[in-house]
Amino acid sequence: MQFTLQTRHKKCEVHVGQLSSLIRLLMPSNRCIFVTDDNVFKIYKDFFIDKETIVVDNGEANKTLQTVHEVYNQLMKMGADRKSFLIGMGGGVITDLAGFVASTFMRGLRFGFISTTLLGQIDAVIGGKNGVNVNQFKNIAGTINQPDFIINDPSFFKTLPEKEFANGTAELIKHYLIADAAGFEWFKGNFHLFTIRDPEFMANLIYHHNKLKAGIVETDETELGIRKILNFGHTIGHAIERETKLPHGFAIAQGMVLAAKISRLLGFTDNHTVMEVIAIIERCKLPSYSDLPIESIISSLGADKKKAGNKIDFVYLESIGKAGIHTMSLDELEKIVKQIFK
Ligand SMILES: NC(=O)c1ccc[n+]([C@@H]2O[C@H](COP(=O)([O-])OP(=O)(O)OC[C@H]3O[C@@H](n4cnc5c(N)ncnc54)[C@H](O)[C@@H]3O)[C@@H](O)[C@H]2O)c1
Predict the structure, then answer these.
(1) Is the pLDDT of residue 342 over 80?
(2) Do residues 73 and 192 both lie within one domain?
(3) How many A from CA of 91 to the centre of ligand 1?
(4) d(CA 114, ligand 1 centre) in Å
(5) Which residue among 152, 170, 248, 259 has its CA within the 20 to 30 Å range from the CA of 160?
C-alpha cells in the first residue's frame, strides 16, 4: 500500500508493507548511511550487516543536541558529503533525531525513514516535524522537513514490548477522537485483531492513520490552524509526563480524559462523549485517571507558561471524531483543572 504526501515544497512517498522488498525499491544509489539505536541495532543485526550505520543509545533521554553532535562527528569521520543519503531506522526518537541531523548537516541531506514502533508508524514519521529536546522541554530545537520516503512495516511489532505498543495506542485513539468517527467504530468492531497485532489488520490500520494524518498535514504543514488539533490531550498530558515520568502514551491517555472533561465544563461536549473517551482508553488498558496531586499538574502547567506565555490553544472535543480549538489563558485552564479535581 502506498500514497504520496504532497506539501508545498516536497513530495514524500509513504509505504506500508514489507521492509525487505521495499528497501530494494526505495534505497537510492547514493551512499546511504543508517542511523539507529542500540536496541534496534541488536534485535535486527542481520539487516544492518552490510550497511554503514551510526548507532546511538536508545530512549528519550538521548534525544538531545549532544546526540546530534555525536552523529555529526561520526558523519564527518565517515567522510559523508552533501550527496550522502541518511536513513533513520527506529522509533520516534530516532526518526525525529535523524530528520533533524539530515536537515542541518552540511545545510541539508536527503533522507528517509524506516519506522519500527507503533507510535512511530502511526504518528512520528508523518508530517515532517523533526527535532530534539532541550532541558526538560520536548522538541524545542527542530525543523519541518519531509523525508523522501517512509517505510512502515507492521512486522516490527512482533518484537515491540507491550509498553511501547501502548504508547502508540494512545496516539491512534487520539486520531479517532479528533477526526474519525467511522474509523472509531471500525476499530472497536475489530478490537480483537488489534490486541493480537494481526499483520493484515495492522497494515490496514497503519495505512488508514497515515492517510488521515497526511490529510491534516497537507492542509496545514506548519501548524497555523487545523494541525493544532493533533495536540489533543497533550498540554495536560505533557505536564503529567514531566511530573510522573510515566510513559508518553499513559500520560497522554490521562491528558485526553482530562481534556474531554474540560471540554464538557466549557460547554463544548456532553457527558456521553466523555464516557466514550474513558471507555476506549480503559479497553486499551491505558489509565483513564491521574492520581497525581493537582498541585503538581498546576506547577507543571506553570512551566509551560514560562516557555509559551500565558495563552494556549486548547484542543476541545465536541463529539467523537470532531475537535476544535479554543484559545484561553493558562490561568483559566488551571482554574478548570482545579474544578475537576475538587
Ligand atoms: N515528529 C512527530 O511528529 C512526532 C509525533 C509523535 C511523537 N514523536 C516523538 O516520538 C518519540 C517517541 O517515539 P517512540 O515511542 O517510538 O519511542 P522510541 O523511539 O524511544 O522507541 C521506544 C523503545 O522501543 C525500542 N524499539 C524500537 N523499535 C523496536 C522494535 N521493533 N522492537 C523492540 N524494541 C523496539 C527503542 O529502542 C526504544 O527503547 C518522542 O520523542 C516523541 O516526541 C514525534
Answers:
(1) no
(2) no
(3) 3
(4) 12
(5) 259
The closest-lying atom of ligand 1 relative to the alpha carbon of residue 127 is 3
- Show the domain range for 242: 163-341
> Which residues have any ligand 1 atom within 6 Å of their CB?
37, 39-40, 43, 58-60, 63, 90-94, 96, 116-117, 119-120, 123-124, 127, 129, 138-139, 156, 159-160, 164, 167
How many residues does this entry show for the chain? 342
Residue whose CA is at the smallest distance from ligand 1 atom 35: 160
The per-residue pLDDT for range 145-196, each reduced to its tens digit, is 999 999 999 999 999 999 999 999 999 999 999 999 999 999 999 999 999 9
* Ligand 1 atom closest to residue 63's alpha carbon, by position in its atom list: 41
Q: Please state, as a whole number, how many other Cβ atoms lie within 10 Å of the Cβ of residue 104.
A: 17
Decide if pLDDT at 59 tops 70: yes
Last residue of a domain, one of 98, 126, 159: 159
Number of domains in the chain: 2
SS3 116: coil
CA of 284 to the centre of ligand 1 (A): 19
User: Are residues 179 and 122 part of one domain?
Assistant: no
Same domain, 175 and 67: no
Domain end call among 113, 128, 159: 159
Distance CA 160, CA 179 (A): 27
Is residue 304 predicted with pLDDT exceeding 70? no
Question: Which residue has its alpha carbon closest to ligand 1 atom 7?
Answer: 124
Over residues 92-117, mean pLDDT: 97
- My answer on whether 209 and 115 are in the same domain is no
Alpha-carbon distance of 7 to 16, in angstroms, equals 20
Residue nearest to atom 6 of ligand 1 (CA): 124
- What CATH number is associated with residue 70? 3.40.50.1970
Among 177, 163, 165, 161, residue whose Cα is nearest residue 280: 177
Q: How crowded is residue 165: how many other Cβ atoms within 10 Å of its Cβ?
A: 19
